Amino acid sequence: PKMFKVKAHLDTEVDNTDDNLKQGACVMSKFCADQGLRHVSNDGVARVLEYSMEVTG
Dihedral through CA 3, CA 23, CA 52, CA 14, nearest 10? Predict the structure, then answer.
């Protein structure tokens, strides 16, 4: 089932650095807070970041 729909402009390439990973986690946290969604666990954030790296090659 579809939970929510997100439209966003994403860079096609982002360096895999600690700063960029931290920024990605902050973006997810802010999105959830702005949308009134539950907090995402550290494991959940890590999995989303891992998946984004998988699908971008």
Answer: 140
